[in-house]
Design goal:
By secondary structure, the protein is an alpha/beta fold. The protein is about 35% helix and about 30% strand.
C-alpha cells in the first residue's frame, strides 16, 4: 500500500492502527496493525463476525475512540496531533454518523432532530430548520417534518437519522449496522437510499454490516478477522 503520500488524497487513511484494552494482567488486542485508505466518494462495507473488531475500527475512523498506537488521518489531518475540541469539531463538520438504534431525541420532532447538529455549530434556528427540511425532503420525509420518533416507523426513524447525519454536508458518512433493527424490505430501501446519496452527491460511505448481501452492493468490501484486515476486495466492473 502506498500510504505515506496519500493522507491528503483520501478521506480516510489509517497507518498501523492497534487498539488494545487491559484484561486483568494482560492486554486484549481488538485491532492489530491495521492500515487502509478510503478515497473520496467510495462506498465501502466493513464486515466480520461479532468480536472481529469491525465496530472498533469504525469508532476509530469516526474518532469516537483512540488507537493504542498508529495514526488516523481524516481529510489529510493527523487526528493524533489535534486537541479534543478540534476532534469534536471534525466529528461535527466532516463526519455524519448513522447508528443502528437511530439515537433520536424522543421529545423533538423530525425537523428539530435533524436541525440539532447545526444548532451546535451556531446556526440560527431558522436557518438550521430550513437546511433540515431540505434533507428530510431529500430522504422522502417531506410529509413527516413535525412527527416525533414515536409516531414514525422504524424505516422512517432511520431516514430521519440519515437526514441528521447529512445536514452538515459531511465528507464522510459512517453507518454502524444501519439496517439491523429493520425488516427486510425496509432495510433494502435504506441501503438503496444510502447508495443513491453516495452516487448523487459523492458522499464517501462506510457501512459496518454483518449482511453479506449489503456488502456485495458496495464498491468495496473490507473483511475484518481477529483484529486484522483479512480481505480487501473491490466489486467487479
Amino acid at each position: 500500500m502506498n500510504f505515506p503520500d496519500q493522507q491528503s488524497q483520501h478521506v480516510i487513511c489509517l497507518l498501523g492502527i492497534t487498539r488494545s484494552y487491559p484484561a486483568g494482567t494482560t492486554l486484549h488486542t481488538i485491532l492489530n496493525n491495521v492500515s487502509l485508505s478510503v478515497p473520496a466518494g467510495q462506498s465501502c462495507a466493513i464486515v466480520g463476525t461479532s468480536g472481529s473488531g469491525k465496530s472498533t475500527l469504525l469508532n476509530i475512523i469516526g474518532i469516537l475512540d483512540k488507537p493504542t498506537s498508529g495514526q488516523v488521518f481524516l481529510a489529510g489531518e493527523d487526528m493524533s496531533l489535534v486537541s479534543e475540541d478540534a476532534r469534536a469539531k471534525v466529528r461535527n463538520q466532516i463526519i455524519g454518523f448513522v447508528f443502528q438504534g437511530f439515537n433520536l431525541l424522543p421529545r423533538l420532532n423530525a425537523l428539530d432532530n435533524v436541525a440539532l447538529p447545526l444548532l451546535y455549530r451556531g446556526f440560527s434556528r431558522t436557518i438550521a430548520r430550513q437546511k433540515a427540511q431540505l434533507q428530510l425532503e431529500r430522504v422522502g420525509l417531506s410529509e413527516r417534518l413535525y412527527h416525533r420518533p414515536a409516531d414514525l416507523s422504524g424505516g422512517q426513524r432511520q431516514r430521519v437519522a440519515i437526514a441528521r447525519a447529512l445536514v452538515g454536508e459531511p465528507e464522510l458518512l459512517l453507518a454502524d449496522e444501519p439496517t439491523g433493527n429493520l425488516d427486510h424490505d425496509t432495510a433494502e430501501d435504506i441501503v438503496a437510499l444510502l447508495l443513491s446519496l453516495n452516487d448523487k452527491f459523492g458522499t464517501t460511505l462506510l457501512i459496518v454490516t454483518h449482511d453479506e448481501k449489503i456488502a456485495d452492493r458496495m464498491e468495496r468490501c473490507i473483511r475484518v478477522r481477529d483484529g486484522r484486515v483479512a480481505e480487501d476486495r473491490y466489486a467487479p466492473r
